[in-house]
From TrEMBL:
One cellular component term from this protein's GO annotations in UniProt: plasma membrane
Protein name (Swiss-Prot/TrEMBL): Integral membrane protein
Organism domain of life: Bacteria
PANTHER family reported for this sequence: UPF0750 MEMBRANE PROTEIN YITE, UPF0750 MEMBRANE PROTEIN YITT-RELATED
Keywords (A to Z) from UniProt: Cell membrane, Membrane, Transmembrane, Transmembrane helix
Keyword check for Transmembrane: yes
Gene3D superfamilies: 3.30.70.120
Membrane-protein topology: Multi-pass membrane protein
Residue ranges of the TM segments: 45-64, 84-107, 114-133, 139-157, 177-198, 204-222
Amino acid sequence: MVAKFCYHTVFLRHPLDLWYDYNTKKLNEGSDRMRQFLNRSEMKPVIMLVALEIIALSINLFFAPHGVAAGGATGIAILVQELANVPVGLTTLAVNAVMLVLAWFLLDRATTKRILLGSVTLPILLAVTPQIMIVQDRLLAIIVGSVVFAIGVAMLYRIDASSGGTTVPPLIFKKYFGLKPAIGLLGIDLIVASFNLPVAGTEAFILAIFSIVLTSIVMNYVETGLDRKKAVYIMSTARGDAVKQNIQADLAHGMTIQHVTGGFSNDQREMLMVVVEQTDFKRLVDTVHAADPEAFMLVTEATEVHGGSFV
């Protein structure tokens, strides 16, 4: 059994798999240290200022110079700049002021206070940050701008802060109509993006939609980290013991056994839960099928795993 374990876990593993495991482990450790750093109360004002400046840089270096409004108060400001040459910072301040008034009367005071600092600081940073076209290619500028913007917003979310603006209406929709904030925010962003059509043309509209999608994807990865794992739930009718033995022998992997009841048959069964690295997922499936080709497997994405040992 020991020889088999060594053969499968060491000598058959591709060097790239070992490199991936090492680096994802380091990334995970770095992510945990960063999370602890961001959660320190004395650092939150500094982190908020840095995050807002990152957002301001994304707008003034990538979006505004190319006239692409990808939603939000800054998107409205870019449209106004294209039409009337009004500075982005000034329009953003005006929009944020209106949103603060709405929040004051329609939302609770705690929410208004939470968005107040960001609503005032972001327009100031937009005003003092130079607006320069550093990337000539429009598509490349929007790609880079979306990634930079997503990092800034994700940092704000991490410390429970906000840049204000059009994040207010979705909170109002949720309070009075029960609409999910994510849906409300997406709807507002799409409405703002649609105004690219008459103001800046079809290409700007398509780039704005692309930016909204890309920003959402990047934010998801920034918030949950790159060290994702697979959580696999396994049920075997007749070969459960063989499945467990194969997993322990071929992957040297632990597992959790849950006792479940079939909803139709009312039969009592064991369900295994195994959390594996992305690189080990295919091996796990092959190992289970080798023991029981009819085994039932449910696979989910585990974006965060804390504690324990899974390799």
